[in-house]
Amino acid sequence: MSKLPRCEGEAYGVPVLRVPHLWIHRSKQPGHTAQAGGFFFAVTIDDRKRAQRQDVLAALGALSPAERGERSRAIATRLVAHPAFAAAGVVALYASLGTEVDTGPVAMAAAGAGKLLAWPRMSAAERRLAFAACAPAALVPGPMGTLEPPPAAPRVTLDVIDLALVPGVAFDGALRRLGRGGGHYDATLAALPARALRFGLAFDCQVVDEVPAEAHDLRVDLVVTETRLIGPVG
Which residues does 90 contact at the CB level (< 8 Å), separation at least 6? Predict the structure, then answer.
């Protein structure tokens, strides 16, 4: 777990001038921090995103493996009961990374219901994700450090996806999403057909008051947590 910041500027990753007996305070201008003596530091949206990632990832890291497993199963139960899941023939999902919601129970339920499972492949040369179909047990380590379909797995084009399950570091009540910063899912979600639904999977501790967002940051249609559904899709 990372150490706690010693001041607001440090929390946002902004260099802070260390001068004895000076203190940091909040400027009346939005997006600025000020140091006594008249030094101002602009806080950019990227700074806010980094700070929020750090806070939420710390909260995720505080969950025990048993807690993550139990809450992931609750999320799977809530998702599988949703009409959009029942109606979907092709479900795009992902192999969980680190402290993310475990998608294993969802994958088992989808496979048991006869749905086609489409898993992403990441490429350093292409921001948009490519998808291929395989059973969960057939996933192999990819070059980017994530599990992905084997090379021989049949390709799944974006236009046939009915439901896309999306990871994220944080979500908010307006369905904004904070990713890990690579832009892979923003590019992919923008290319999905309009009829495809985009559901974010998250623990309650990942739901924040407001996600700092820019024009290229796409929203999801629904967020599924272990205790609730956030969004208008019913």
Answer: 115, 116, 118, 156, 160, 161, 162, 163
Bridge-partner residues for 213, per DSSP?
Answer: none
Other CB atoms within a 10 A radius of the CB of residue 28 amount to: 6
pLDDT in tens, 82-137: 999 999 999 999 999 899 999 999 999 999 999 999 999 987 777 889 999 999 99
* Separation CA 61–CA 104 (nearest Å): 19
Spatial CB neighbours of 146, under 8 Å, sequence gap ≥ 6? 94, 95, 97, 122
Sequence length of the chain is 234
Alpha helices in 31-100 (DSSP H): 45-61, 65-80, 83-87
**pTM for the full predicted model:** 0.80
Cα distances (Å, whole numbers) of residue 61 to 131, 172, 182, 205 = 29, 20, 21, 11
Strand order, beta sheet including 177-178: 177-178, 170-172, 207-208
